[in-house]
Design goal:
2 domains, 4 helices, mainly alpha, about 100 residues
């Protein structure tokens, strides 16, 4: 093996390094996007989960009728910490 890099080998090595750097940038960008979508803070999440469970409980017991099953909406947004309405309005209750 010679200590000198032939022009073709240098280009191949450079392409591999640049490809790796590009992949790392894509991964960090995707992770940043995933984290930036979280827009429901911890107190807000707890209230949503409790309200969702209460509404579903009322629906199951027949107190509120079938409308109580809409409690799945706040329950899911509380569990996932994402609210599409907050996203549309640019609101975030997360601590940043």
């Amino acid at each position: 093996m010679t200590p000198f890099i032939v022009a073709g080998e240098h280009a191949a090595w450079r392409d591999r390094v640049l490809d790796g750097i590009g992949r790392l940038r894509e991964q960090s960008t995707m992770q940043g996007r995933a984290l930036s979508r979280l827009n429901v803070g911890s107190h807000d999440r707890a209230l949503r989960i409790l309200a969702g469970l209460a509404l579903i409980g009322l629906a199951v017991t027949g107190t509120s009728g079938v409308w109580g099953y809409l409690g799945i909406v706040p329950l899911l947004s509380g569990l996932t910490a994402r609210c599409p309405v907050y996203s549309a309005l640019g609101i975030a209750t997360t601590a940043r």
